[in-house]
Design brief:
This protein is 45% helix and 14% strand. The chain has 472 residues and is an alpha/beta fold. A hairpin with a 2-residue loop joins β7 and β8.
């Protein structure tokens, strides 16, 4: 049987392991960096560049130390090197450490080759160093240790080298074969003993049996399966969440469309904000049953809204000068609070309200409308302002077109017929900006912040996750 068949038997047929010499695998990390080594025509490492990268003082010293520490008790070690120069370096360094090592290469004479092989089989010296000679077609049943000092991208080549030590013959004294792989640094593409079992090439193992290697591989495969399943579940959850967000957004837009359609109907019937006609002469807009807005043009707006106790509070937001930067509006400033009725909040009354001074800076509650008229020009806020009766501008008509709650032709027809005045469209724009659309924008911003937090939590979980790592 050739070495390739023996290794394939080892990897694919555990029931037939008793026909092989039991291997033990050790992967030793070396200082060799193969990043700059080019490929040859076969896709393996270029021999010349590989020899220059591997045949170094540090790498050779690591090999000798690995043999002394892990295999000095072995009787017959076969070392696979890259080229003749590498063989020579390993042999001389071995002898410098008192190890009887001999070399056999393609340059060795037939007579010396035959004699050296005979003495090695007889156990007269412990280490034979070679390159490209004993990878296949040679039976040396007494080998009990293989050192792989020749990095490769070829699965066939590494299995042939390992196969030299897997022959099992009786009466050789061989109990097992120790495979020592001098693993080099490379991000991908290198074939090592761990990769034969489906493990990471960077994994460092110490005298592991095939059973142990397969067990680790199965554990890592299960861990990968669980990770992939978790990622798939996460993707499914994210997809469902996205679908739910899309559904909620669609519902919100439908509600806003219905509200705007109702506004348009009221506008056409000239019944908009009838409640305010008897309360105020200013252009208040009803946003909902508990919120009312008075737009002050580009200068800001006034809000009247109920709190959790159903008291009306009045707040003001003012525009900031453009030269101050990107922030356009101030924070809401309380004007009045704790008002029991809407008409009192809008018109106010002339008697005293005992309100906290920090919320209500005025001693006497006076007209909200009066405060507005003292603060902003009348023509910006009055319902009877002449500009509100003028036909809506093209720019104003374009705004409803963008949100497309009605067909473009409907808006153009209404604009051409004079139904859409500047005041009416301004009220719709106020309703959109401060109503559902604003709520939708706030919810979307809140959801985006929530997604960021979830992403941070996921990254923390991934950093804290214990994965199956190297075995030293």
């Amino acid at each position: 049987m050739n070495g390739l068949f023996l290794v394939e038997l080892l990897l694919r047929a555990p029931a037939d392991w008793d026909r092989l010499s039991p291997p033990r695998f050790t992967a030793v990390r070396s200082s060799v960096d193969l990043t700059g080594v080019r490929e040859d025509a076969t896709g393996d490492f270029d021999i010349r560049g590989l020899g220059q990268a591997v045949n170094t003082y540090m790498a050779n010293q690591a090999l000798i130390k690995a043999w002394i520490d892990r295999a000095s008790e072995r009787k017959s070690t076969l070392v696979f090197c890259i080229d003749i120069a590498h063989v020579r370096s390993i042999m001389l360094k071995s002898r410098a450490h008192g190890i009887d090592a001999r070399d056999v290469t393609s340059k060795t004479s037939t007579q010396v080759h035959r004699e050296c092989l005979k003495e090695f089989k007889a156990g007269k010296f412990p280490v034979m160093v070679t390159c490209g000679v004993f990878t296949e077609g040679t039976d040396i049943p007494n080998i009990d240790c293989i050192i792989l000092a020749r990095p490769t991208r070829s699965r066939n080549l590494i299995t042939q080298m390992i196969g030299r030590g897997l022959r099992k013959l009786e009466n050789t004294g061989e109990t097992d074969c120790h495979i020592i792989d001098m693993v080099a640094n490379l991000s991908h593409g290198v074939v090592t003993t761990p990769t034969l079992f489906g493990l990471d090439p960077d994994m460092v193992v110490n005298e592991m049996t095939p059973e142990q290697m397969f067990a680790v591989a199965a554990k890592e495969a299960e861990a990968r399966r669980k990770t992939e399943e978790g990622e798939r579940c996460l993707r499914d959850d994210q997809f469902q969440a996205e679908q739910e967000r899309a559904r909620v957004e669609k519902e919100m837009w439908k509600k806003e469309e219905a509200r705007l359609e109702e506004d348009i109907r009221k506008l056409k019937e000239n019944r908009t904000n009838q409640v305010f006609y008897s309360i105020s002469r200013l252009a208040w807009v009803s946003i909902g049953p508990t919120k009312y807005i008075l737009s002050c043009g580009r200068n800001g707006h006034i809000t009247v809204e109920t709190d959790s106790n159903e008291w009306y509070n009045v707040e003001e937001v003012r525009a900031l000068p453009l030269e101050l930067g990107r922030v356009r509006w101030t924070w809401s400033k309380p004007i009045m609070s704790g008002i029991e009725q809407l008409d009192l909040a809008i018109r106010g009354c002339w008697y005293y309200f005992p309100l906290p001074p920090n919320l209500f800076p005025l001693t006497w509650s006076y007209l909200t409308d009066t405060y507005v008229l003292k603060t902003y020009p009348r023509h910006l806020v009055a319902r009877s302002a002449l500009w509100r009766k003028l036909p809506a501008s093209d720019q104003q008509v374009e705004f409803p077109k963008k949100i497309r709650f009605r067909g473009d032709k409907d808006w153009e027809d209404m604009g051409n017929s004079g139904e859409l005045t500047k005041g009416k469209v301004g009220d719709i724009i106020t309703r959109v900006k401060h109503g559902t659309v604003r709520l939708f924008s706030e919810k979307k911003k809140e959801q985006k912040n929530k997604e960021k937090e979830e992403a941070k939590k996921l990254m923390r979980r991934q950093r804290e996750e214990v994965k199956v790592g190297s075995i030293v």
